[in-house]
Amino acid sequence: MFNQTNLKRPAASFAAVIGLSLVLSACGGGEIVTPDPDPKPDPTPTEQVGLIKGQITPFKAGDVLSVRAGVENDQDSAIARAPVDMKGAFDLQLPMVNVITTNFNGKLISPKYVFGCDDSQIDKESSFTTGLLLLPINDLKTDKFQSIIAEVDPNSPTFNYKAWYFANMDGSLKFKGDCILRGKIDTNLNFKRGWNVVNTYTDTSAGTTTYTITSQPEDRIPWTFATAAATSLSLRGQSVQLTKNYFTPWKNLPQYQNR
Question: pTM for the complete prediction?
Answer without folding.
Answer: 0.82
